[in-house]
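REQUEST ID: PR-0412
SUBMITTED BY: lab tech R.K.
PRIORITY: routine
TASK: structure prediction, single protein chain
INPUT:
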Amino acid sequence: MADSESILKENLFFLAGALSRKLSKEADDVFATVGLSSSHALILLLVHQEPGVQPSQLAGKLHLKPSTITRLVAKLERRQLVEKESQGRAKSIVCTSKGNSMAANIEEKWDTLLQDKQEQLGDRYTEVLSEMIANALDSLSEE
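STATUS: complete
OUTPUT:
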């Protein structure tokens, strides 16, 4: 039987979860300074970059359930950072002026987080790891 060290180092599920928790905590700590989680900050930035995006599109891009997007957007609405607009039966999301103002700060924080990881891990390693994770997500989404 393998020892506990090798079990952990060879377990994709554990490793992916551990990496996710570590990176999420770092991002959440950064965005706590503006009163948002990293998930809320990312949604606000995506809405800012793509005004009128539909919740279902956000769910697809972020690999989240529509109900999770609804909950995250509702908090951004309560903070008056985004608002929903109706286009017939479809709903779309746009930033408010307050949300647009905050988006530049959020983008800087994401850029700083990425630069910090690139300095810590190296540019090429960060690029390859990001590409591999994106490819894995795409492959798993096709199933």
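NOTES: Residues 81 and 90 are 20 Å apart (CA to CA).
REVIEWED BY: pending
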